[in-house]
Each structure stands twice: as C-alpha cells, then as structure tokens.
What does this fold into?
Amino acid sequence: MQQAVDQAAFSLASLERFCREVFSACGANDATADAATRAMMHGTRYGVDSHGVRLLAHYVTALVGGRVNKTPNLKAVRSFGAIETLDADDAHGALAAYTAMDRAIALSDQFGIGAVAIRNSSHFAAAGAYALEAARQGRIGIAVCNSDSFVRLHDGAMRFHGTNPISVGVPTTDENPWLLDMATSSIPYNRVLLYRSLGVELPQGTASDLNGVDTRDAEAVEMLAPLGGEFGFKGAALAGFAEILSAVLTGMKLSFDIAPMGGPDFSTPRGMGAFVLAIKPEAFIERDVFDAGMTRYLETLRNSPAREGCTVMAPGDREWRVAEEREKSGVTIDPVTWQSFGEMAEKYGVTLPA
It folds into this structure.
C-alpha cells in the first residue's frame, strides 16, 4: 500500500468513483452519496486538500454510526419572501448546503436575492463548493457555517470559535469566477490533521498548545489562532459573524456547544447550522454593466505591479491553476488517507482508485 501511494498519482475520475461507491456501499442514499462526493472532489480538485477526499473515512464513520442521516428528508420549515429556513434532518452537510443554495438561487430568480438558513446539518466540507455553485449559475454566492470550538480568541487561551469559514463566489465573463474561500482561523483544523499525517511543521503563529502558547508542532496543537496574527481580533470578529448567521439566526448550537468533529461520539447528530445567500446582479444593475465592471476590476488587479519575486493573483486563481494541473496529472494521496482507502475498499468490496 505504501509503495503504491508513493509512486502514483490518482485520476480525479477514479477518486470520484471510489468515494461515491464507498458512500453507497455503507448505506447512504444516492442524493447523499452524490453531494458528499461532489463536495469532497471540489476540495481535491482545487487544492483544498484538508477538505478533500481525506474526509471520506470520517464521513463514512459518521454515516454508519448514526451521527449523519443516510436517508434524510430535507424540507423548508419557514419562509418569508426571499427567505427560507431549511431543516436538513441531520443530513450530510454537503447535501444540506447544495440543497439550500439551489433554493437560494431559485429565490433570487423571483426576488433578486435568496437567503436560506440551514438547521440540523453536519460538517459540509469546503464552503467554497457552494459559493462556486452560485457563481457558475451567474449569481453572487455566499456560504458560511460554524463548527466545533478549536480557535482561541485574540489574546485568548481557550477554544472558543470553530474555524467558521466564509466563502464568496462572483460570476465573471471568463470561465472561472472570483472565488474567496477562507477559514476565519489562521488555518483550518483539517490542515493540522493533514500536516500530522505528512510530518510537516505548521507555519509560525498559526496554532497554540494547551496553554495558548504558539507551537509549530502539529502533534502539540490544542487550538488554532484567529486569522490576522497580531491583529487577530479581526479574524475573531469575522468568526463571530459566521457564528451569528449559522447558529444564532438558525437556533442551532454555538461552536462551544457542538460535539467534537473527531468524536468519540459518532452516534448523536451534532445539530449544526449554516447559511447561504444568492444575489442576482441584474436585479441591481444591467448585466452588461456588472460584467464590464468585473472584467475591468480583474484585469487591473492581475496586471498590477507585483513585489520582486511575487505574483499578483485574484481570489480563485490559485485554485484554477491547481485544477488544471490535477486534471492533467492526477492527485497524490497522503499515507494516512491511502491506508484508510485500503481498509474501506476491503470492507465494502470497492476497487481502489487508479
């Protein structure tokens, strides 16, 4: 197994096939298998590896254990004009978020804007998957969620917020949108797990030990720092923004009340919330004016002077380059993830990726 992962790059198509087949084999319905696979492949395709296929084993554990509903009945439980609240029935977070964004896009057709709050959901992988979905359909898309506490406050020494991501996708006349996808922590916790697997040191100032003291040792990490370094109060406030929309506005659990993602309890639903928004630009201004503005903005941005040895990029540019390379050359898999693939392949009778 180790030899295989060290010497091979796996095609995106084979990884997608493997993930979907494993989800189906563990009892997830088609909608869940499709949405969860699609969200993980977004992470793997665009280089957000902390939220890519390495999450497969975790998601299977949650589905089999009962934390996540294999056959949920998602339904709108409140509506008011362009606003809806979706009860996800403890669905996989990807199914909940894709369903909510589809509904927000439909509402934006009618009202120019659509906002959907999500109740009774679970971990939804990379927030950018849902903002990108809206942007691909010509909308400005926003997606946020909160998660279990793992990020200290600025100058704090205890876990308070989750990594609480914020994502915004904006359509352009080019194939690829403007895409922001950021944790409000210095780095996402899943990146700590990835670095542990790879035996790589963390960047300075991104994480702390049990006493709130900075550490670069991924094995010693007990909490993350908020985004912003010496000005981390800004990242902490952004985390609070995501917290309010995801938990307070939905009546779901605050970060410090959510059960830890890593268990040990995988039988009890986590009661997580999230929030998505879709905006139809032509409801505000003529579409050609909006498109021209985005084109001029991005052209000026990309052609602006760079510091020596650096390159200026728009949000999303790195992801598009990674995707192009991975479509052509495939993806390498870290040893821990590959080992979990082997275990799931044997357990469920599914052929490994190639």
About this structure: The chain has a mean pLDDT of 96.
